[in-house]
Amino acid sequence: MSEALMSDDHPRAGAAAPRRANRARRFLRNPQAVISALVLVLIGGAVLLAPLLSTGDPDAAELSKAFAAAEPGHPLGFDSAGRDVWSRLLHGGRNTLGGALIALAVALSIGVPGGLVAGYYGKWFDALANWVGNFVMALPAMVVLLASRAILGPTMWVLMVVLGVLVAPSFFRLVRGIVANVRGELYVDAARVSGLRDRRIIARHVLVVVRAPIIIQTALVAGIAISLQAGLEFLGIGSGDLPTWGAMLNEAFQNVQRSPMFMAWPGLALGITSAALVLLASALRDVLEDGDAKPPKLRAARRARVVTPATPDDDRPRASLLSVRDLAVSYGAGASAVDVVHGVDLDVAEGEVVGLVGQSGSGKSQTAFSVLGILPEGGRVSRGSILLAGTEVVGLSEKGYRALRGDVVAYVPQEPMTNLDPAFTIGSQLVEPMRLRLRLSRKAAAERALELLRQVEIVDPRRVFHAYPHQISGGMAQRVLIAGAMSCDPRLLIADEPTTALDVTVQAEVLELLRRLQAERGLGVLLVTHNLGVVADLCDRVAVMNAGRIVETGSTEQVLAHPGHPYTRTLIDAVLDDAPARPAWVAPRTDDGTEVPA
């Protein structure tokens, strides 16, 4: 770990350099990677330098040398038309590999972006793109290429563009399936709540998940493109005026009885190139995914969906920071719709800490998610009003929510480790929202991130800044999430069971940290919890929730000392603080008083 933060200038660059060095070392220690890369470099270099390495014009024919053996300057001899085989092999590689690159570029440019958008957003675009992809995959590629040649002409480059369109669905289906699974990860929700735009989340947090499969698929598709291009030329369907490996195979096959060795050279070139591509892709996948960057665990997809309800007519005064009136959250549609939150009224004023208390399944998190705009797939606000800093957010678009997240409202989740992207360092995840929301330079954002880590009482902030999530403890990860929530100076902090996953000692430290930050910054806090001890220690007011409804509200002292609702009394009676201590363990004895050994 570097002692200086890139001279306090560029922390991510300082952290990235060791990662690149480690990957380079892993690559160089992998014989498969080194050998396959060396083979491809030699083939690519020879093809690119064909005009310099060849001994003449590949199309120059001299019938007197037909089938002539090798001679100085012509190491592979001459073909049936007296053309130099070595020159045709080099120039043919330029055309064969160039055509494959065109097909690959077209397939990547259509399939990968389409898969990312369809997998991340879903809805009508996903359905339409899936239908188009299935339709294209159902088409017989060779028949389409033959028809394209008849319509568009025999130009090989045009046929390779058509081939790229035909193989694009393989990239689309691969990427779309992975993204649809990963878009519901908690760290993606955390990035969304921090105010990042969708395109930035896709490019930074989602694309990294499909990196390795794309590498493998690229190698396979490149091999297919080379083989199909060579197959077209072998069948005589290509342009015919360019030397290619497939055309050389065609000619050699026609004269196999006269000179069988002519088939070996283009065949070896095709086989070695395709094999080296697959082996290199496999090695690159291992280098990228092994080691410090661990691929995220995939979960079932979740997506937020909000519909526009009617705003209730309510004359009660509403808090300026957060005011919820008659909130209802439903799942399903039509007659099968089920309400999980019913008519919730809730207010949080500036500088106030409000506890939302209830047993698991009472609707606390659903209410908080409604305020944040991150309800799970199938959930929607079916009725009510939510004013966030004076802005009605029910029915608000994702773009509208982004304008509020980060600097108006921030979120601290209950599972710290799953809300941090395992593929990026702590520092990079803290710096990114500040650069986007606060328009800070990389250096200023890094300095602010380090200061935030100090404020949340992390002893060695520079080490944590450069660490990955799996390299820190759960308590430290929760402190990092609190630092991230504070990074853009929000006015409202929603903390959803922030100490549930921590041991009691760390819980006390985190609660003290929240109390101090709230007092220093004048935050409004909505604390979602089922722990009445946390409420008594931290909250100014309490709202008790049961079966999706608020059953009692009041000051903390009033609700805990003089509960007015039977459910509140049940919650308080369940607390064991006043229960008598368990008796000390006494060893069992026999009838004669002898102690039974343990």
Automatic annotation (TrEMBL):
| Keywords, comma-separated and alphabetical | ATP-binding, Cell inner membrane, Cell membrane, Membrane, Nucleotide-binding, Translocase, Transmembrane, Transmembrane helix, Transport
Q: Tell me how this protein sits in the membrane.
A: Multi-pass membrane protein; Peripheral membrane protein
Q: Name one GO molecular function term.
A: ATP hydrolysis activity
According to the entry, every stretch annotated as the ABC transmembrane type-1 domain falls at 93-281
| SMART domains assigned to the protein according to its UniProt record, in alphabetical order | AAA
Query: Which Gene3D superfamilies did the record assign?
Result: MetI-like, P-loop containing nucleotide triphosphate hydrolases
* GO CC annotations, alphabetized: plasma membrane
Q: Say if the entry is tagged with keyword Disulfide bond.
A: no
Any one Pfam family match given in the protein's UniProt record, by short name: ABC_tran
Cellular localisation: Cell membrane; Membrane
Region (Disordered) residue ranges read 1-20
Record domain ABC transporter: where: 322-572
Example of a GO biological process term: transmembrane transport
Q: Give the transmembrane ranges.
A: 33-53, 97-121, 128-151, 157-175, 206-226, 263-284
Q: Which family does it belong to?
A: Belongs to the ABC transporter superfamily. Belongs to the binding-protein-dependent transport system permease family.
Q: Which PANTHER family match?
A: ATPASE AAA-TYPE CORE DOMAIN-CONTAINING PROTEIN, OLIGOPEPTIDE TRANSPORT ATP-BINDING PROTEIN APPD
Q: What is this protein called?
A: Peptide/nickel transport system permease protein
